[in-house]
Amino acid sequence: MSAPVAVKEGAGRVMRGPLISRWGALAVPLLLFLTFAFLVPMFLIVVRSVTDPVNIGMGNYVTFFTTEANMRVLGNTFYIATVCTVACLAIGYPYAYLMSIVPQRVAGIMLVFVLVPFWSSLLVRTFAWEVILRDTGLINTLLLNLKVISEPLPLIRNTFSVILGMSQILLPFMVLPLYSVMQKIDPELTRAAANLGAPPFSAFRRVFVPLSFPGITAGCLLVFVLALGFYITPTILGSARETMISRFIADQVQVRVNWGLASAMAVVLMVLTFVVLAVASRFVKLRDVYGALGEG
Amino acid sequence: MSAHLPSGRAVRTDRTALALRGLRKMFGDVAAVAGVDLDVQEGEFITLLGPSGSGKTTTLRMIAGFTEQSAGSIEIDGVDVSTVPPHKRDVGMVFQNYALFPHMTSAENIEFPLQMRKVPKAEAKQKVADALKLVKLDSYGPRYPRQMSGGQQQRIALARAVVFQPRLLLMDEPLGALDKKLREALQLEIMHISRQLGATVIYVTHDQEEALVMSDRIAIFHDGKIEQLGSGEDLYERPISLFVADFIGESNILHGKFAGGSVVAELGTWRVGDAAAARASLGADSPAALVVRPERLRLIPRTGDVPAGVNTVDATVTDVLYLGSTRKYELRLANGQGVGVRQQLGGPETTWNPADEVRLAWDVDAGVLVAGRGA
Fold it and tell me: Per residue in B108-147, is it b (16+ CB within 10 Å) or e — as a string?
């Protein structure tokens, strides 16, 4: 009985072989690029973190984890990323919901508003915040002239300004996956809930929100992971207290020329990001996250 | 039947469960529903039947409260609900695409309306179990919709729509997405369940067979209005318009002018029965159409006498189709119009062949007179 099976398998392989190799060629440029632009440098960083400046050892990691300032920067990074994520969700969810219930044409216009930030430089937008928030900036000058306040409000160089600036930049990454999931929720389902006796808010809470959950996790994950690596915005809008780990890594390289410790920090950030993704993947299919973004 | 489901209601009382009065819906300048009046008795199974775009679904959605009417009123159990939001109307609805909540199990779906009505937990559990039994899916409570077939999902949707004993059960082409065999099985099941519960059902479909099988009465929708309301037999035997005659069943339609108790055309003059003429009440010389069902036509030889009380028209056989219990003849009249004749098999019969020149005959009383085109 094994003979016909073997024949079948053989035939399958003959059919499949050339097909894969032919189409597979399309992926070669990307794989080459990823290998030389990402995997090789990554590997070199890992190597450097355990070899620079002394012989092979975990010294850089020990230094990193035993220095209080380093741990504070790491904690700060996670704190700011978390607050940004919550802020983006709080602002983005109602907006995406509105987009999903208005006519398609209006939703298109609303989408443009979300995407406008993508079309201008991150640096320009961050400096724009500085112009608005600084002591001699738009808000403070206005309030001072109106005699509402007698001295400038501390709007910049603090956690508030960092979170404000980062949230604005990260908002599209929350709204797009949310909208992409919400627009696929069958409006008949909320109608069915109403028909079965659910007042509008119950229908929303019991039916719409649970069905939008993949969008919530996707958006939160994207915003959080991107926020972890932010560099320019916290540098310009924050003070030393808001230093995030990317800035710290850059300092180690540019100011202290300590490549070993910088590499170790980069590895720690990368590993922690993977941990977040791994934990999240237990609750949501990662494919949905990127699928949602792509379709939005 | 369990005590937890509405079993005590008498079927077919004289109470009006639903009354539509001059119901209209405008979408811009277009009237999707152009004045619908309808009284539905408690326990009645009424089907809104019509082609797509005839206003039947819009009418159903106005009854459910999903769409606001532009004019007219909707009364449920004698109370005007025109301005009552959908969640307070207390009508159950079964949707074409099932509209089961995908993140809830069958049992949770069925329990949803009970939770909204704050039914105590234990009682709700019992009602859910009874509803699952009613649709013969006792063990499917823990399944998610995606783990069930279309037919099973629709039965869960039905259980969810009746578990809270709504005053009306609305069904919007509930079997539209299912294959023919399943559709026929579910037609009977929906019929039995609705009778068992004594439910008042408003059923929307574009499938006339479905309407004929299930309904006490059928409302034929055409251009946003009810063209005719009656039993299946009424609609088939006594259509009041060309549209209904054409829409329900197969018909042969002979066009002409109404004159002196007959329809006069180039091909002949055909007498109309007194009852049919009275129903149509057409003016002299107005365009008229004579409707004759395929099973009411007979083929006779061209030579020989025509019996009294019979109309005839000459025709040529083009095709003979053997269909098991019947034989179908396709014929052509002198003006090129096609005609179908259905002959019941099993009795004495004469068999004709293609190209045979014959005479079509029918009893005067078998013809139905309706206003013709342009009337």
Answer: bbbbbbbbbeebeeeebeebbbbbbebbebeebbebebee
Q: pTM to 2 decimals?
A: 0.81
The nearest alpha carbon in chain B to A189 belongs to B99
Tell me what the pLDDT averaged over chain A comes to. 86
pLDDT at site B349? 72
CA distances from A240 to A126, A129, A151, B224 (A): 17, 18, 23, 71
Q: Which residues of A touch B (CB under 8 A)?
A: 186, 188-189, 191-200, 202-203, 206-207, 210-211, 213
ipTM of this complex prediction, to 2 decimal places: 0.83
Per-residue pLDDT band for B13 (boundaries 50, 70, 90) equals low
* Range of the structural domain that residue B132 is part of: 16-237
For B165-213, the pLDDT digits (tens) are 999 999 999 998 889 899 999 999 999 999 999 999 999 999 999 999 9
Where residue B93 sits, what CATH number does that domain have?
3.40.50.300
Is residue B257 in a domain? yes
Average pLDDT over residues A245-249: 89
pLDDT digits (tens, 9 = 90+) for B101-124: 999 999 999 999 999 999 999 999
Domain edges within chain A: 1-51, 59-295
Q: Which residues of A touch B161 (CB under 8 A)?
A: 196
Q: How far apart are CA A204 and CA B33, in angstroms?
A: 30
**Rounded Cα–Cα distance for residues B72 and B35 (Å):** 8
pLDDT for B75: 95
Query: What's the rounded Cα separation, in Å, for the pair A190 and B66?
Result: 11
Q: Is residue B42 part of a domain?
A: yes
Task: For residue B124, tell me if it sits in a domain.
Answer: yes
**CB-based contact, B168 to chain A, within 8 Å:** no
Q: Which fold has domain A59-295?
A: MetI-like fold (1.10.3720)
By the 8 A CB rule, do B25 and B32 touch? yes
Interval A184-211: pLDDT, tens: 999 999 999 999 999 999 999 999 999 9
Q: How far is B29 from chain A (nearest CA, A)?
A: 19
Tell whether B164 is within 8 A of chain A (Cβ).
yes
Nearest Cα of chain A lies from the Cα of B2 at a distance, in angstroms, of: 22
CB A144 within 8 A of CB A134: no
Contact yes or no for A203 and B95 at CB 8 A: no
Task: Tell whether B249 lies on the interface with A, counting CB pairs under 8 A.
Answer: no
Residues B174 and B310 in one domain: no
Gap from B82 CA to chain A (nearest CA, Å): 15
Q: Do A197 and B90 touch (CB under 8 A)?
A: yes
Same domain (yes/no): B151, B289: no
